[in-house]
Amino acid sequence: MAPYKFAWQKLLDLNTRQKDQAQMQLVEAMAEQHKLEERLENTKAEIEMLNQQMIDRQQKGTSVASLRQLAEYAHYLQAKLVHERKALLLAKRRTSHTRQTVVHYMTEEKKMAEIETETPACLDQARTPERADGYR
After folding, report:
1. Domain residues for 43?
2. Does 7 map to a domain?
3. How many domains does the chain have?
């Protein structure tokens, strides 16, 4: 007897491809989120180090021009921090959306697998009976 071929095999294959693609997108989104979290932490550490450096220079009696340069750099770092927080928020949203997509495709795949196990081969044959004159 020939092996049973599921009538909706192409649909099942398409669902599997979409699920695999969504999983790859999830991995990419999580990697991007992790990279942005690291950059955010590095910027925070740099701001802390710069603030400490400004305090040390003020106590030692450095020129006003030098302190102004440090203050401008601190302002730049604060703007960079705000930008990185927004980028991280967007990355988290993308990761969340992609995770939901993966879950959706996994449930679809489970449903299709259940249908596949419940559908016997005789039902497919019964749907297209040949008539006596050779037409379907």
Report:
1. 22-112
2. no
3. 1
Rounded to the nearest 10°, the torsion over CA 45, 48, 50, 52 is: -140
Q: Tell me whether residue 17 is in a domain.
A: no
Q: How many angstroms separate the CA atoms of 120 and 106, rounded?
A: 23
Asked whether 66 and 103 are in contact (CB, 8 A), the reply is no
pLDDT tens figures, 67-116 = 899 899 999 999 999 999 999 999 999 999 999 999 998 898 888 778 77
Structural domain contains residue 63: yes
How does pLDDT run across 12-40, given as a tens digit for each residue? 788 889 889 999 999 999 999 999 999 99
In a domain, 120, yes or no: no
Question: Can you tell me the distance from the alpha carbon of 75 to that of 83, in angstroms, rounded to the nearest whole number?
Answer: 13
Confidence of residue 51 (pLDDT cuts 50, 70, 90): very high
Report yes or no: 21 and 30 within 8 Å, Cβ to Cβ.
no
pTM of this structure: 0.68
Q: For the chain, how big is the Rg over CA atoms in Å? A: 30
